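Hey, quick one: can you model this chain's 3D structure?
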Amino acid sequence: MNRKKAIKISKPCLVRIRNSFRALIIQIVREQSYALSQLKSAYYDEEEIDHNKIQSIIDEQSSLRIALRDSICKCAACSDSKRDHVYNPNEKKWYCEECYEILKKSYTEVDKMPNWFP
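Sure thing. Here's the predicted structure for all 118 residues.
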């Protein structure tokens, strides 16, 4: 996306569905990350440690965390998953509306970068 995008849902039933999907995705990522941690621990317990396998597991865990952080499931600033979110095309991240407005004000007044948060 190349422009600011706000996703606002006002109907309570759709808000519940959205929040349920976000919670499900977050839970799946946590479970996958936990499974990778268990696998990494098993590799550390072996007599000959295979550092390449361990590094690939660490890389995969990092990719999962980055994907979740940059997704619409969580605010990039406060990690909230229940509010409406706004996309910042400059950072390629999603923020809840509250954090977006705080950051926009900060970047405009303090940092003198008004175009960073459109």
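One thing worth noting: The mean pLDDT is 88.
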